[in-house]
Design a protein that fits this description.
With 375 residues, the protein is an alpha+beta fold. The chain contains 9 helices and 18 strands. Bound molecules: zinc ion (ZN) (3 copies). The site of one zinc ion has 5 residues, from loops.
Length: 375
Amino acid sequence: MLRRAGDVSPFADRFDRVRARMVELDVEVLCLSVGADLPWLCGYEAMPLERLTMLVVPVDGSATLVVPGLEAPRVTERPELFALRPWTETEDPVAIVADLVGPAVSVAVGDRTWARFVLDLQAALPSSQFVRSSSVTEALRAVKDDHEIAALAAAAVAADQVATQLQQGDVVLVGRTEADISADLGRRLVDEGHQRVNFAIVAAGANAASPHHEPGARVVGPDEVVLCDFGATMVDDNGVGYCSDITRCVWTGTPPSEVAEVYGVLAAAQQAAFDAVAPGVAASVVDRAARDVISAAGFGDRFVHRTGHGIGVEEHEEPYVVDGNDAPLVVGNAFSIEPGIYLPGRYGFRLEDIVVAVEGGGRRLNEVDRSLAVR
Ligand code: ZN
Ligand code: ZN
Ligand code: ZN
Protein backbone atom coordinates (compact mmCIF):
# COMPACT_ATOMS: atom_id res chain seq x y z
CA MET A 1 0.00 0.00 0.00
CA LEU A 2 1.25 3.48 -0.87
CA ARG A 3 1.92 5.87 1.98
CA ARG A 4 1.75 9.61 1.59
CA ALA A 5 4.09 11.79 3.63
CA GLY A 6 1.23 12.77 5.92
CA ASP A 7 0.58 9.17 6.83
CA VAL A 8 3.94 8.86 8.53
CA SER A 9 2.68 10.13 11.82
CA PRO A 10 5.08 11.75 14.27
CA PHE A 11 2.41 11.62 16.96
CA ALA A 12 3.10 8.14 18.32
CA ASP A 13 6.65 9.22 19.15
CA ARG A 14 5.34 12.34 20.91
CA PHE A 15 2.91 10.29 23.02
CA ASP A 16 5.84 8.05 24.02
CA ARG A 17 8.02 11.02 24.98
CA VAL A 18 5.15 12.66 26.88
CA ARG A 19 4.44 9.51 28.88
CA ALA A 20 8.15 9.08 29.69
CA ARG A 21 8.24 12.65 30.97
CA MET A 22 5.05 12.06 33.01
CA VAL A 23 6.78 9.11 34.69
CA GLU A 24 9.77 11.32 35.49
CA LEU A 25 7.54 14.01 37.00
CA ASP A 26 5.08 11.66 38.72
CA VAL A 27 2.21 13.08 36.68
CA GLU A 28 -0.56 10.51 36.39
CA VAL A 29 -2.88 12.18 33.89
CA LEU A 30 -2.37 14.92 31.31
CA CYS A 31 -5.44 16.93 30.24
CA LEU A 32 -5.13 19.17 27.18
CA SER A 33 -7.68 21.61 25.77
CA VAL A 34 -7.23 24.80 23.71
CA GLY A 35 -3.63 25.85 23.12
CA ALA A 36 -0.67 24.47 21.21
CA ASP A 37 0.07 21.36 23.28
CA LEU A 38 -2.96 19.52 21.90
CA PRO A 39 -2.25 19.88 18.16
CA TRP A 40 1.44 19.23 18.78
CA LEU A 41 0.64 15.97 20.54
CA CYS A 42 -2.25 14.57 18.53
CA GLY A 43 -2.81 16.72 15.42
CA TYR A 44 -6.14 18.18 16.55
CA GLU A 45 -6.65 21.79 17.56
CA ALA A 46 -9.54 22.45 19.95
CA MET A 47 -12.00 25.15 18.97
CA PRO A 48 -11.89 27.97 21.54
CA LEU A 49 -15.55 27.70 22.47
CA GLU A 50 -17.74 27.33 25.53
CA ARG A 51 -18.09 23.63 24.79
CA LEU A 52 -15.20 21.70 26.34
CA THR A 53 -12.71 19.77 24.24
CA MET A 54 -10.19 17.81 26.31
CA LEU A 55 -7.69 15.07 25.58
CA VAL A 56 -7.19 12.89 28.66
CA VAL A 57 -3.86 11.03 28.62
CA PRO A 58 -3.24 8.62 31.51
CA VAL A 59 0.42 7.81 32.07
CA ASP A 60 -0.49 4.17 31.52
CA GLY A 61 -3.70 3.29 29.79
CA SER A 62 -5.25 4.64 26.65
CA ALA A 63 -6.00 8.27 25.88
CA THR A 64 -9.44 9.70 25.14
CA LEU A 65 -10.40 12.85 23.26
CA VAL A 66 -13.56 14.27 24.82
CA VAL A 67 -15.05 16.47 22.14
CA PRO A 68 -18.38 18.21 21.48
CA GLY A 69 -20.44 15.87 19.28
CA LEU A 70 -20.90 18.47 16.60
CA GLU A 71 -17.11 18.89 16.30
CA ALA A 72 -16.33 15.16 16.18
CA PRO A 73 -16.40 15.12 12.35
CA ARG A 74 -13.47 17.57 12.36
CA VAL A 75 -11.22 15.14 14.21
CA THR A 76 -8.75 13.06 12.23
CA GLU A 77 -9.14 9.82 14.13
CA ARG A 78 -5.97 8.07 15.24
CA PRO A 79 -7.42 5.07 17.09
CA GLU A 80 -3.96 3.71 17.87
CA LEU A 81 -3.32 6.89 19.89
CA PHE A 82 -6.65 7.98 21.34
CA ALA A 83 -10.32 7.00 21.48
CA LEU A 84 -12.98 9.55 20.62
CA ARG A 85 -15.66 10.38 23.19
CA PRO A 86 -18.13 12.80 21.60
CA TRP A 87 -20.53 14.33 24.10
CA THR A 88 -24.09 15.38 23.41
CA GLU A 89 -25.67 18.72 24.26
CA THR A 90 -27.31 17.28 27.39
CA GLU A 91 -24.18 15.67 28.83
CA ASP A 92 -21.72 17.24 31.29
CA PRO A 93 -18.24 17.15 29.70
CA VAL A 94 -16.49 18.00 32.98
CA ALA A 95 -18.08 14.93 34.56
CA ILE A 96 -16.91 12.82 31.61
CA VAL A 97 -13.35 14.09 31.99
CA ALA A 98 -13.44 13.65 35.79
CA ASP A 99 -14.56 10.08 35.25
CA LEU A 100 -11.64 9.41 32.88
CA VAL A 101 -9.15 11.01 35.28
CA GLY A 102 -10.50 8.83 38.09
CA PRO A 103 -8.57 8.74 41.37
CA ALA A 104 -5.39 10.31 39.96
CA VAL A 105 -3.56 12.43 42.49
CA SER A 106 -1.37 14.42 40.10
CA VAL A 107 -3.02 15.97 37.03
CA ALA A 108 -1.30 18.22 34.49
CA VAL A 109 -3.74 20.56 32.76
CA GLY A 110 -3.04 22.63 29.64
CA ASP A 111 -1.63 26.10 30.42
CA ARG A 112 -4.17 27.75 28.14
CA THR A 113 -7.22 25.86 29.40
CA TRP A 114 -10.00 28.27 30.25
CA ALA A 115 -10.37 28.98 33.97
CA ARG A 116 -14.05 28.00 33.90
CA PHE A 117 -13.09 24.43 32.99
CA VAL A 118 -10.10 24.25 35.33
CA LEU A 119 -12.21 25.47 38.25
CA ASP A 120 -15.00 23.02 37.44
CA LEU A 121 -12.47 20.18 37.12
CA GLN A 122 -10.90 21.08 40.45
CA ALA A 123 -14.34 21.01 42.06
CA ALA A 124 -15.09 17.62 40.45
CA LEU A 125 -11.70 16.19 41.50
CA PRO A 126 -11.17 17.54 45.02
CA SER A 127 -8.32 15.15 45.87
CA SER A 128 -6.26 15.83 42.72
CA GLN A 129 -3.29 18.19 42.59
CA PHE A 130 -3.11 20.26 39.41
CA VAL A 131 0.10 21.33 37.68
CA ARG A 132 0.63 23.04 34.33
CA SER A 133 0.97 20.90 31.22
CA SER A 134 4.05 22.91 30.24
CA SER A 135 5.97 21.11 32.98
CA VAL A 136 5.49 18.01 30.82
CA THR A 137 5.49 19.42 27.29
CA GLU A 138 7.67 22.52 27.24
CA ALA A 139 11.07 20.83 27.15
CA LEU A 140 9.82 18.26 24.63
CA ARG A 141 8.30 20.83 22.29
CA ALA A 142 11.54 22.85 22.36
CA VAL A 143 13.33 20.03 20.53
CA LYS A 144 11.90 19.78 17.03
CA ASP A 145 11.74 16.50 15.16
CA ASP A 146 12.39 16.28 11.42
CA HIS A 147 8.71 16.85 10.59
CA GLU A 148 8.75 20.05 12.57
CA ILE A 149 12.01 21.37 11.10
CA ALA A 150 10.59 20.75 7.63
CA ALA A 151 7.37 22.56 8.55
CA LEU A 152 9.25 25.54 10.02
CA ALA A 153 11.47 25.66 6.95
CA ALA A 154 8.44 25.68 4.63
CA ALA A 155 6.88 28.54 6.61
CA ALA A 156 10.20 30.42 6.52
CA VAL A 157 10.44 30.05 2.74
CA ALA A 158 6.97 31.58 2.41
CA ALA A 159 7.89 34.45 4.74
CA ASP A 160 11.10 34.98 2.73
CA GLN A 161 9.03 35.36 -0.44
CA VAL A 162 7.09 38.18 1.16
CA ALA A 163 10.27 39.78 2.50
CA THR A 164 11.75 39.65 -1.01
CA GLN A 165 8.65 41.35 -2.41
CA LEU A 166 9.08 44.01 0.26
CA GLN A 167 12.76 44.55 -0.52
CA GLN A 168 12.25 44.59 -4.28
CA GLY A 169 9.54 47.22 -4.14
CA ASP A 170 6.52 45.05 -5.01
CA VAL A 171 5.03 46.27 -1.75
CA VAL A 172 4.48 50.00 -2.25
CA LEU A 173 5.54 51.93 0.85
CA VAL A 174 5.68 55.71 0.33
CA GLY A 175 2.23 57.30 0.46
CA ARG A 176 0.54 54.37 2.22
CA THR A 177 -0.37 54.03 5.88
CA GLU A 178 1.35 51.53 8.13
CA ALA A 179 -2.01 49.77 8.58
CA ASP A 180 -2.50 49.46 4.82
CA ILE A 181 1.01 48.02 4.32
CA SER A 182 0.42 45.65 7.24
CA ALA A 183 -2.76 44.31 5.62
CA ASP A 184 -0.88 43.95 2.33
CA LEU A 185 1.87 41.90 4.00
CA GLY A 186 -0.78 39.73 5.64
CA ARG A 187 -2.45 38.97 2.30
CA ARG A 188 0.92 38.08 0.80
CA LEU A 189 1.72 35.70 3.68
CA VAL A 190 -1.53 33.86 2.91
CA ASP A 191 -0.86 33.94 -0.84
CA GLU A 192 2.49 32.28 -0.17
CA GLY A 193 0.85 29.37 1.61
CA HIS A 194 0.18 30.34 5.21
CA GLN A 195 -3.31 29.75 6.62
CA ARG A 196 -3.35 32.28 9.46
CA VAL A 197 -1.60 35.64 9.83
CA ASN A 198 -0.32 36.11 13.38
CA PHE A 199 0.98 39.66 13.15
CA ALA A 200 2.43 42.15 10.67
CA ILE A 201 4.14 45.02 12.45
CA VAL A 202 4.82 47.97 10.15
CA ALA A 203 6.54 50.90 11.87
CA ALA A 204 7.61 54.00 9.98
CA GLY A 205 10.16 56.61 11.05
CA ALA A 206 10.19 57.29 14.78
CA ASN A 207 7.51 54.62 15.27
CA ALA A 208 10.20 52.04 14.52
CA ALA A 209 11.84 52.96 17.83
CA SER A 210 8.93 51.14 19.53
CA PRO A 211 9.66 47.41 19.14
CA HIS A 212 6.01 46.25 19.19
CA HIS A 213 4.47 49.26 17.46
CA GLU A 214 0.82 48.82 16.42
CA PRO A 215 0.55 49.80 12.72
CA GLY A 216 -1.73 52.77 12.35
CA ALA A 217 -2.69 55.79 10.27
CA ARG A 218 0.88 57.09 9.93
CA VAL A 219 1.66 57.59 6.22
CA VAL A 220 5.10 56.47 5.05
CA GLY A 221 7.15 59.31 3.64
CA PRO A 222 10.46 59.62 1.82
CA ASP A 223 13.82 59.21 3.58
CA GLU A 224 12.76 57.17 6.54
CA VAL A 225 12.83 53.64 7.86
CA VAL A 226 9.98 51.18 7.47
CA LEU A 227 10.46 48.29 9.89
CA CYS A 228 8.40 45.22 8.98
CA ASP A 229 8.14 42.25 11.36
CA PHE A 230 5.63 39.66 10.24
CA GLY A 231 4.72 36.07 10.91
CA ALA A 232 2.02 33.56 10.13
CA THR A 233 1.07 29.93 10.62
CA MET A 234 1.40 27.26 7.93
CA VAL A 235 -0.37 23.95 8.43
CA ASP A 236 1.79 20.94 7.60
CA ASP A 237 0.67 17.65 6.05
CA ASN A 238 -0.09 16.25 9.50
CA GLY A 239 -2.55 19.07 10.13
CA VAL A 240 -0.38 20.94 12.63
CA GLY A 241 0.39 24.64 12.15
CA TYR A 242 3.96 25.97 12.42
CA CYS A 243 4.94 29.63 12.66
CA SER A 244 7.08 31.92 10.57
CA ASP A 245 8.57 35.15 11.93
CA ILE A 246 10.92 37.54 10.12
CA THR A 247 11.95 41.18 10.37
CA ARG A 248 13.43 43.27 7.60
CA CYS A 249 13.86 47.04 7.32
CA VAL A 250 13.60 49.26 4.25
CA TRP A 251 14.81 52.86 3.91
CA THR A 252 12.73 55.00 1.58
CA GLY A 253 15.55 56.92 -0.11
CA THR A 254 19.27 56.95 0.45
CA PRO A 255 20.12 56.38 4.12
CA PRO A 256 22.41 58.99 5.69
CA SER A 257 25.81 57.55 6.57
CA GLU A 258 25.04 57.58 10.30
CA VAL A 259 21.96 55.46 9.65
CA ALA A 260 23.94 53.03 7.52
CA GLU A 261 26.51 52.75 10.31
CA VAL A 262 23.90 51.97 12.95
CA TYR A 263 22.37 49.36 10.67
CA GLY A 264 25.83 47.91 10.09
CA VAL A 265 26.26 47.46 13.84
CA LEU A 266 22.92 45.65 14.02
CA ALA A 267 23.73 43.35 11.12
CA ALA A 268 27.10 42.51 12.70
CA ALA A 269 25.37 41.77 16.01
CA GLN A 270 22.88 39.45 14.33
CA GLN A 271 25.71 37.64 12.55
CA ALA A 272 27.70 37.33 15.78
CA ALA A 273 24.74 35.77 17.55
CA PHE A 274 24.21 33.35 14.68
CA ASP A 275 27.90 32.44 14.70
CA ALA A 276 27.65 31.67 18.43
CA VAL A 277 24.90 29.08 17.91
CA ALA A 278 25.93 25.48 18.48
CA PRO A 279 24.66 22.54 20.49
CA GLY A 280 26.07 22.76 24.00
CA VAL A 281 26.27 26.56 23.94
CA ALA A 282 23.98 28.30 26.43
CA ALA A 283 21.19 30.45 24.98
CA SER A 284 22.48 33.27 27.19
CA VAL A 285 25.81 33.12 25.34
CA VAL A 286 24.00 33.70 22.03
CA ASP A 287 22.22 36.68 23.58
CA ARG A 288 25.54 37.99 24.90
CA ALA A 289 27.19 37.68 21.47
CA ALA A 290 24.66 40.08 19.92
CA ARG A 291 24.63 42.38 22.93
CA ASP A 292 28.44 42.73 23.04
CA VAL A 293 28.59 44.00 19.45
CA ILE A 294 25.82 46.54 20.07
CA SER A 295 27.29 47.63 23.41
CA ALA A 296 30.77 48.06 21.91
CA ALA A 297 29.26 50.51 19.41
CA GLY A 298 27.67 52.49 22.24
CA PHE A 299 24.06 51.36 21.79
CA GLY A 300 23.86 48.82 24.60
CA ASP A 301 21.05 50.66 26.37
CA ARG A 302 19.12 50.94 23.07
CA PHE A 303 18.82 47.15 22.66
CA VAL A 304 15.87 46.82 25.01
CA HIS A 305 14.74 43.22 24.58
CA ARG A 306 16.04 39.66 24.57
CA THR A 307 17.81 38.43 21.44
CA GLY A 308 15.22 35.81 20.56
CA HIS A 309 12.53 33.31 21.37
CA GLY A 310 11.85 29.70 20.51
CA ILE A 311 9.29 29.07 17.79
CA GLY A 312 7.20 26.12 16.69
CA VAL A 313 3.46 25.57 16.98
CA GLU A 314 3.55 28.79 18.99
CA GLU A 315 5.17 32.07 17.96
CA HIS A 316 6.96 32.34 21.30
CA GLU A 317 8.04 29.27 23.25
CA GLU A 318 11.19 27.75 24.73
CA PRO A 319 14.11 28.22 24.37
CA TYR A 320 14.30 31.95 25.07
CA VAL A 321 17.56 33.55 23.96
CA VAL A 322 17.99 35.78 26.95
CA ASP A 323 20.44 36.62 29.69
CA GLY A 324 19.96 34.11 32.49
CA ASN A 325 18.89 31.20 30.29
CA ASP A 326 22.02 29.15 30.75
CA ALA A 327 20.52 25.93 29.46
CA PRO A 328 22.67 24.61 26.63
CA LEU A 329 21.14 24.50 23.17
CA VAL A 330 20.53 21.05 21.73
CA VAL A 331 20.14 19.84 18.15
CA GLY A 332 16.56 20.58 17.10
CA ASN A 333 16.08 23.81 19.05
CA ALA A 334 14.44 26.41 16.77
CA PHE A 335 14.45 30.08 17.74
CA SER A 336 14.66 33.62 16.45
CA ILE A 337 17.75 35.78 16.46
CA GLU A 338 16.42 39.32 16.39
CA PRO A 339 18.57 42.02 17.94
CA GLY A 340 17.36 45.59 17.62
CA ILE A 341 18.61 49.14 18.08
CA TYR A 342 15.95 51.72 18.96
CA LEU A 343 16.61 55.46 19.02
CA PRO A 344 13.51 57.11 20.53
CA GLY A 345 12.14 60.02 18.54
CA ARG A 346 14.26 59.10 15.52
CA TYR A 347 14.18 55.57 14.15
CA GLY A 348 14.78 51.94 15.02
CA PHE A 349 16.03 48.76 13.39
CA ARG A 350 15.55 45.06 14.03
CA LEU A 351 16.88 42.14 12.00
CA GLU A 352 15.32 38.73 12.55
CA ASP A 353 15.82 35.23 11.22
CA ILE A 354 14.67 31.85 12.47
CA VAL A 355 17.60 29.57 13.25
CA VAL A 356 17.80 25.86 14.09
CA ALA A 357 20.59 24.34 16.16
CA VAL A 358 22.17 21.59 14.08
CA GLU A 359 25.22 19.38 14.56
CA GLY A 360 28.19 21.73 14.96
CA GLY A 361 26.40 25.06 14.59
CA GLY A 362 23.28 26.83 13.41
CA ARG A 363 21.16 26.69 10.28
CA ARG A 364 19.23 29.76 9.22
CA LEU A 365 15.76 28.98 7.89
CA ASN A 366 15.40 32.55 6.51
CA GLU A 367 17.79 33.25 3.67
CA VAL A 368 16.53 36.55 2.30
CA ASP A 369 19.00 39.46 2.02
CA ARG A 370 19.90 40.98 5.40
CA SER A 371 21.09 44.41 4.33
CA LEU A 372 19.05 47.59 4.80
CA ALA A 373 16.94 47.57 1.65
CA VAL A 374 16.80 50.91 -0.12
CA ARG A 375 13.74 51.88 -2.12
ZN1 ZN B 1 8.54 40.65 19.19
ZN1 ZN C 1 9.26 38.95 14.57
ZN1 ZN D 1 10.31 37.04 16.73
